[in-house]
Amino acid sequence: MGIVAWALIGLLAGAIAKALMPGKDPGGCLITMLIGISGGLLGGWLGKVIFGVHAINGFFHPSTWMAAVIGSLIVLTLYRLVLGRKNGH
Fold this sequence. Notes:
By secondary structure, the protein is mostly helical. The protein contains three helices and no strands.
């Protein structure tokens, strides 16, 4: 996949993750995209390691989106834990 496809999947997966885990997060579109892209990479890696499947099969394949959203949820959780600890919450 090209860089534009990764950015689009990242933006959408990050937005879906934020919709599934509502709450206040600093950062806007760029942070959402970075969370989604890193979540997609994490989800793809976890799918390969745990299930032995190649999760990133193509832009429109459901496993690509599932991996990206699940990975984004994990990254968003870690982001909130680190950021909350850093701000003293």
